[in-house]
């Protein structure tokens, strides 16, 4: 009880307005904790995001706001109590490294990201629109869903030292997939959240699929629900992960339902249950494939997260040193030039 009381006092000092009253109820009942977490997620952004045009290119800046660490820790407290297997990266340095490493791993073939300043990450803007925009406009197609599924499958084949297994996103919502119609390619963005490391790779990746499907379940018309969801899963194709997904389709109870409500835009639970039940039965008829072996991304040298020339021996989050040579280069010379300050540009190499 003392830990919860301290959490309420902390929020009372940090959060203005109506959230203070909600936070004080954290010591009264578990429901008070759920209310706090839900309202924090909805009302308080951990980051400020803006775009700038530099040298003919558009880059996206993401900066951690003041007190973001405390707010993330409070939300993580709710996740733990509700047995929800995800966490926000609350520590600034850990978040910046994970954000940059994931972006580079998945998108570094054409686009780049780095840490800059004291609290920022900057990345080249990906071409296209989020699938969430297409969903809301009614322009989402099965072709787009297949492209999204192929990106899920590709991303899920990467090895992650952080997980000691295959990689997972943690917040693979439809808002975090950018679709480029010119190339018919979807790409992941936003790496704020990670899965509990105690989960198996199949459970983590199945949760990624579930998060994506929960975005569809309350928005897609009934006549399209099964066609859209089965198109996505069949294109994804990994039989082992989809078998695990079937075990995770049951609606949770208690505090965990609050988060499912957020994920489904608070769609009627009966509607969600019916649609997921229909999907569970339809999965048995899909043409699926066996899983593939994880591949190690950038097995030679991984880039520094900073917009500057790297140096040998920069530590990884696990405190193991990276094998880097004296010839290590910046992530991307043009990105480095775009975000570098005049003082930094004048520094000798």
SSE arrangement:
Elements: H1 2-14, H2 19-24, H3 30-43, E1 47-54, E2 57-64, H4 68-81, E3 86-88, H5 92-107, E4 113-116, E5 120-124, E6 129-130, H6 131-137, H7 142-155, E7 159-160, E8 165-166, E9 177-180, E10 185-188, E11 193-195, H8 201-217, H9 222-236, H10 239-247, H11 256-263, H12 269-283, H13 333-339, H14 342-346
Antiparallel strand pairs: 1-2, 2-5, 3-11, 4-5, 6-9, 7-8, 9-10
Helix pairs in contact: 3-4, 7-9, 8-9, 8-10, 9-12
Structure description:
The protein has 349 residues and is of the alpha+beta class. It has 3 domains: 1-44, no CATH class; 47-67 and 84-125 and 310-349, no CATH class; 129-283, Aminoglycoside 3'-phosphotransferase, Chain: A, domain 2 (Alpha-Beta Complex). The protein has 14 helices and 11 strands. The chain has a 4-stranded antiparallel beta sheet. Strands 6-9-10 form a 3-stranded antiparallel beta sheet. Strands 3-11 form a two-stranded antiparallel sheet. A hairpin with a 4-residue loop joins strand 7 and strand 8. The longest helix is centred in the middle third of the chain and has 17 residues, at 201-217. The radius of gyration is 21 Å and the shape is globular. The protein starts with a helix and ends with a helix. The relative contact order is 0.12.
């Amino acid at each position: 009880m003392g830990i919860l009381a301290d959490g309420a006092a902390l929020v009372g000092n940090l959060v203005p307005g109506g959230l203070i009253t909600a936070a004080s109820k954290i010591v009264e009942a578990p429901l008070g904790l759920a209310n706090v977490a839900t309202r924090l997620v909805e009302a308080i952004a951990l980051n400020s995001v803006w775009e700038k045009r530099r040298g003919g290119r558009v880059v996206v800046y993401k900066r951690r706001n003041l007190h973001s660490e405390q707010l993330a820790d409070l939300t993580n407290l709710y996740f733990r109590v509700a047995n929800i297997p995800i966490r926000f990266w609350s520590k600034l340095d850990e978040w910046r490294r994970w954000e940059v490493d994931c972006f580079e791993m998945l998108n570094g073939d054409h686009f780049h990201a780095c840490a800059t300043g004291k609290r920022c990450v900057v990345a080249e803007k990906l071409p296209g629109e989020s699938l969430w925009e297409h969903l809301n406009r009614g322009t989402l197609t099965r072709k787009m869903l297949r492209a999204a599924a192929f990106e899920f499958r590709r991303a899920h084949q990467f090895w992650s030292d952080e997980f000691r297994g295959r990689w997972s996103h943690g917040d693979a919502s439809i808002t975090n997939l950018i679709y480029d119609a010119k190339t018919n390619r979807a790409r992941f963005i936003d790496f704020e959240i990670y899965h509990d490391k105690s989960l198996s790779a199949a459970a983590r990746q199945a949760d990624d699929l579930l998060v994506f499907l929960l975005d569809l379940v309350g928005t897609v018309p009934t006549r399209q629900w099964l066609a859209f969801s089965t198109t996505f899963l069949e294109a994804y194709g990994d039989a082992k992960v989809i078998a695990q997904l079937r075990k995770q389709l049951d609606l949770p109870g208690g505090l965990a339902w609050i988060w499912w409500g957020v994920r489904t835009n608070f769609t009627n639970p009966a509607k969600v249950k019916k649609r997921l039940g229909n999907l569970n039965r339809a999965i048995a008829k899909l043409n699926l494939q066996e899983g593939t072996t994880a591949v190690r991304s950038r097995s030679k040298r991984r880039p520094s997260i900073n917009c500057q020339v790297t140096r040998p021996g920069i530590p990884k989050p696990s405190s193991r040193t990276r094998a880097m040579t004296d010839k290590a280069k910046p992530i991307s010379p043009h990105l480095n030039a775009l975000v570098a300050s005049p003082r930094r540009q004048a520094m000798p190499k």
